[in-house]
Amino acid sequence: MGFLAPAAGVLTAAAVWAGTAVRLNGLSFGARLMAAAATASGVLTFGMVALLDTTRDNGLSAESIFGIARTTGVPLVMLLTGSLVYATVARALRPVEAIRRELADITGQSLDRRVPVPPGSDAIAELARTTNATLDRVEAAATRQREFTADAAHELRSPLAALRAQLESALRHPDSVTDWREVVAEATADVVRLQHLADDLLLLASHGSVTPVREPVDLSALAQDLVREHQHLPEATALRLRCEAPDHAVLPGNPVHLDRLLRNLLANACRYARTEVTVTVGRAGSDLVLTVQDDGPGIPPADRARVFDRFTRLDEARARSTGGAGLGLPIARDLATSHGGTLTAEEPPGPGALLMARFPSRT
């Protein structure tokens, strides 16, 4: 009896531990339950044995002692051990219930709320901290989405309003229109701007949800082809475009996305350059480096990080009248990041702006 009862208590505690073994920084939650159950079983068992010894000393037979142990002692040990385990688990899970209630009350309009963090450093406290960190990220993402939606609506409103004004004016006063071809040409220009903006918004919305394509892309050949193409575009007719690239600079990546990245950098440089744009492809250790430099007004050092934010335009030269929608550089940066690279605005050796994309040659 002195062996079987403690063994039963230890086995019961081990079963509880196996079912609830959540590791903590030090002692696991299951180990706490096991210790509590084992202690309770041991104390109750020794108490029962002491009681049986007392009854034996009073002249009871072995059969009577065994009957008392079987009908009273063992059930009492099981009942009290189970009650202790239940109370311990219920108390330990109170913070989990508080976390659940708080999460159930959090909606899209109350993302600033956080779950209560119990004191200590056990698994439940870590769960609460991780939940709050996740809520921080969700709130930040929701804020960025709201800002992006508002900026996109603002950008779409301007060309739509201009297009509507042109067409309504022409329809209401057809006699005042001297050249219908000019009206159609202006309307077409606004439609093209809307189309480009819609394409940029679609790319930003879908980027990251499409399975990345990886195949060898010769960055030098791509740069040379795009420089030759841009030399014949209207915005570059008065500029001198140069390309300095080795014969082969192969990068594993998505050829469509790399083409779009370089197009955006070239379009940005041609928009603000005074006389010249230079595209360079080279190596820095094991990385491939692509730079696009213009001799325009440049980017102030304080704005070299902000220029990659969506819908950001710098004052003066990069105003709405001359600039785009403020999506070209953010898209280029996202495409560089998707290839394991970076896109930054660096200090140019002379006047103008210098944009540098750096890619690991093996990704």
Automatic annotation (TrEMBL):
The keyword Nucleotide-binding does not apply. Keywords: Kinase, Membrane, Phosphoprotein, Transferase, Transmembrane, Transmembrane helix, Two-component regulatory system. Residues 90-143 form the HAMP domain. Its EC number is 2.7.13.3. Residues 151-363 form the Histidine kinase domain. It holds the Pfam family HATPase_c. PROSITE patterns: HAMP, HIS_KIN. It is found in: Cell membrane. The chain crosses the membrane at residues 34-52, 73-93. InterPro entries: HAMP_dom, HATPase_C_sf, HATPase_dom, His_kinase_dom, HisK_dim/P_dom, HisK_dim/P_sf, Sig_transdc_His_kin-like_C, TCS_sensor_his_kinase. It catalyses: ATP + protein L-histidine = ADP + protein N-phospho-L-histidine. Its main location: membrane. The keyword Disulfide bond does not apply. This is histidine kinase.
